[in-house]
Amino acid sequence: MSDVTKADADARDAADPLAGYRERFVIDDGDLIYLDGNSLGRLPRAAVDEIGRAVREEWGGELIRGWRHWIDLGRQVGDVLAGPVLDAAPGEVVLSDSTSVNLYKLAGAALSARPDRRVVVVDEDNFPTDQYLMQALAAERGLTLRTVAADLDEGLSTDAVTAALDEDVALVVLSHVAYRSGAVADLPAITRRAHEVGALVLWDLCHSAGAVPVPLRAASVDLAVGCTYKYLNGGPGAPAFLYVRSDLQPVLRQPIAGWFGQRDQFAMAGGYDPEPTIDRFLVGTPPVLGQYGALAGARIAAEAGIEPVHAKGMALTSYAVELYDAWLAELGFTLASPRDATRRGAHVTFHHPEAWRICQAWQDAGVLPDFRTPDRLRIGLAPLYTRFADVYEAFDRLRRITADGTWRSYPAERSRVT
Amino acid sequence: MSDVTKADADARDAADPLAGYRERFVIDDGDLIYLDGNSLGRLPRAAVDEIGRAVREEWGGELIRGWRHWIDLGRQVGDVLAGPVLDAAPGEVVLSDSTSVNLYKLAGAALSARPDRRVVVVDEDNFPTDQYLMQALAAERGLTLRTVAADLDEGLSTDAVTAALDEDVALVVLSHVAYRSGAVADLPAITRRAHEVGALVLWDLCHSAGAVPVPLRAASVDLAVGCTYKYLNGGPGAPAFLYVRSDLQPVLRQPIAGWFGQRDQFAMAGGYDPEPTIDRFLVGTPPVLGQYGALAGARIAAEAGIEPVHAKGMALTSYAVELYDAWLAELGFTLASPRDATRRGAHVTFHHPEAWRICQAWQDAGVLPDFRTPDRLRIGLAPLYTRFADVYEAFDRLRRITADGTWRSYPAERSRVT
């Protein structure tokens, strides 16, 4: 067993090459330990400036002329993310709408490109919105939804996905990093197998982007979507991104034919004739303030680079697993994530039969984790601002409130919004 | 002819009951006269505070706990607008996505509710995104698009719409106030005629909301969408709103089945089972910062009330028409809007064969109007902050640069983004 001391945690922080990035964020919480950066990333100092400037100088001062900055902002942020964070080429990534709307657009486009195939493959470990959207889309188009069983702790098996693939599959929609367990799917292998049967693949990168490398170009991924408010620190409800491989852009046609996809948009011509570029996947007027938040966050992620961020994420989650082994296993917790760090994103999850009551007690002890039904504590360890000392301190508080029964005074019943 | 003097304009301002609202906006442009509030409304002082507070205190300080404020924000803004601005009931209006995405959702829901009907009616005066979306949606569902001819200056004829209606019409999609001319369609009469043949009606309120009364409840309108960044001063790309009459909410089903529409959303259940309320028309994570901008703008509009705003809008556009009669008609301009003030929104439009070159010269003379192809100058007279003296001064500059040929030094060729 490793040397579980505060001094050891401090030593790890002292050796952390990304330690300086913490200063780039507004952190004035006192004793609070934030372990939910995988739901909402912290506020970059640069975002305060960018958004404040955009409000006062651009909206307030430039008024309608601000569009000279705003018209390309979504592509600008996409290009910031493309190379250093997502392994995509310039012009392959753009901000647009929400992840859910983007899933609908890209899945719709993919299904229209495979009109003779009748099956959409999803997996049961996928995020609920992905499942709802594909259920509805399949029903609307008279297609069959084929759901791959998954291990909710260990993640998606490539073999299980492969077994669901045949020449009748139009589209495969999967999460790269599972939202509950943090398990990483084998994106290159699954993409290759899907291509072997002629299917298109749409990856949900919500829990990947800014946490783990995403080999879009290396694996020749067709389509992807993701959000910018988690590890990319873009702000609450910041616009999502979408990726379409460059050769697919001119041939795919998405269903929501809005004017921001139109060729020579301001000619106000009568017939829909979309741009042959990533712009055809845009729809309506973009959320400018949210885009500036996303820009500030994306720049930090791009500057840090995904390889160092990934290395630190693995080190942090591994440290959490060490503390679990040392302190928590004997208190009724079990690991709900892969033990192999290379198979995890930047969050790690634990089961406990009293997870919800413990979660409330832990919050009152100054730690913000995430709860996931029915019995999971999900710990997001955002690499850009989380310290090893934070993990030590948070887990120290967790073992105390669990061991001394503090959690017993909290209700077992959950309120609706968690 | 009226007494066209600056003193007369000042007298009108002195008598304006809404004059005090100008102070609610950040206006430090010096000599600039802003006549494009129908494309992007000005910045409310309260928006600077709301957005700044949301960034620093909620995102930066409350972090994920900010959702206790954010989860209902879209409905909160909808309820602010519902009564005083839109004549809707609480729970019938919500912020969501962009106008274009909302058009797609509501039109999709309406078409699914009329599965045996084969025709969608639009009009040629409708905004391009409405036309593109309906073209694509009709094509996707194998329906016929029936386009009603319109007079692009005088607006939509109720008789022309009526002539396009029969028992095969599923949905009628029209703009209440035309984006070019500002002509107001007869919403109650058209809605009634559509209902007589059993069709649903979806009104685009982008140029109406915050400019003219919208008798949604009085006319028993089925569906409506609109944006918040024009007369509602919500900020660039602020989220759009959608309206669904309460009795239709539980029975309509929109195509983009995202998790924000799901009953008990955070239970993360596997099957899509939407809320029976306006929430089922939501899709993904809402753009929080944009919503706060929309909240600040909506509150001002609600406080002022739509009747005084409408009265001032008519007075301002009528004053512009007076100045046109006195100064511009003899310089080659012609009116491109209805002459009857009750048939106009809060913008008024003029033709001129050299409109584009004049537009550029006018901008350099410190006025921001809008140009619309091929030969229109569109003048937005946002009632909450535009003064009669602004109209006088702007038109005085316009007649000078037109009369003295200043415009001849500007290029006739347009750049792509106007």
Give a brief outline of the structure.
Chains A, B: Pathway: Cofactor biosynthesis; NAD(+) biosynthesis; quinolinate from L-kynurenine: step 2/3; Amino-acid degradation; L-kynurenine degradation; L-alanine and anthranilate from L-kynurenine: step 1/1. The structure is a homodimer of 418-residue chains. The first copy, chain A, has 418 residues and is α/β, with parallel strands linked by helices.
Notes on the protein architecture:
The structure is a homodimer of 418-residue chains. Chain A has 418 residues and is of the alpha/beta class. The first copy, chain A, has two domains: 6-45 and 305-409, Aspartate Aminotransferase, domain 1 (Alpha-Beta Complex), CATH 3.90.1150; 48-304, Aspartate Aminotransferase, domain 2, CATH 3.40.640.10. In chain A, 36% of the residues lie in helices and 12% in strands. Chain A contains twelve helices and 13 strands. Chain A has a seven-stranded mixed beta sheet with strand order 2-8-7-6-5-3-4, sandwiched between helices. Chain A has a four-stranded antiparallel beta sheet with strand order 9-10-13-12, with helices on one face. In chain A, a hairpin with a 3-residue loop joins strand 12 (370-372) and strand 13 (376-380). In chain A, helix 1 (6-14) packs antiparallel against helix 12 and helix 10 runs parallel beside helix 12 (388-403). Chain A is globular. The model of chain A has no long low-confidence stretch (mean pLDDT 96). The interface between A and B is large, with 85 and 85 residues. Chains A, B: It catalyses: 3-hydroxy-L-kynurenine + H2O = 3-hydroxyanthranilate + L-alanine + H(+); L-kynurenine + H2O = anthranilate + L-alanine + H(+). Chains A, B: Belongs to the kynureninase family. Chains A, B: Its EC number is 3.7.1.3.
